[in-house]
UniProtKB/TrEMBL annotation:
Residues 1-29 are annotated as: Disordered. This is Uncharacterized protein. Residues 15-29 have a biased composition (Basic and acidic residues). Keywords: Membrane, Transmembrane, Transmembrane helix. The keyword Membrane applies. Residues 1-10 have a biased composition (Polar residues). The chain crosses the membrane at residues 47-67, 79-104.
């Protein structure tokens, strides 16, 4: 054994905070947060992902429909047309989903502020 102090953590009881409450005590969420104060904001990532997936599906359907028409018989590379239509449609629907998320966020903010001002 050495004479230097040990750097290992002590395993005694943890000290309580100044209020005398045990910091490890279980706290229920409804005891801490008033449900009227919770703001329901949209999740932007999910809105954008749904918009992108919907756009890709619609774009592929439109692209394959456009390539399958009799007027498209002279296309040299129909896959390029499908890819361009899919990319364009995916971009548009992703932007539209982002706009919907922004509008939903503004609406939730208005409701939240209106509820707070009533108290």
């Amino acid at each position: 054994m050495s004479d230097s102090p040990s750097t290992a953590p002590q395993t005694g009881p943890e000290p309580e905070d100044r209020t005398g409450a045990d910091p490890r005590a279980e706290v229920h969420l409804h005891d801490v947060v008033d449900p009227a104060d919770v703001r329901r904001a949209p999740r932007y990532g999910r809105f954008l992902m749904v918009g992108a997936v919907v756009g890709i599906v619609i774009g592929l359907a439109l692209g394959w429909y456009a390539v399958g028409t009799p007027e498209a018989a002279g296309m040299l590379k129909p896959g390029v047309y499908v890819a361009v239509i899919t990319a364009f449609t995916g971009t548009l629907t992703t932007l539209a989903a982002g706009l919907l998320a922004i509008l939903a966020d503004r609406r939730s903010l208005r409701r939240y502020e209106r509820a707070r001002s009533r108290r």
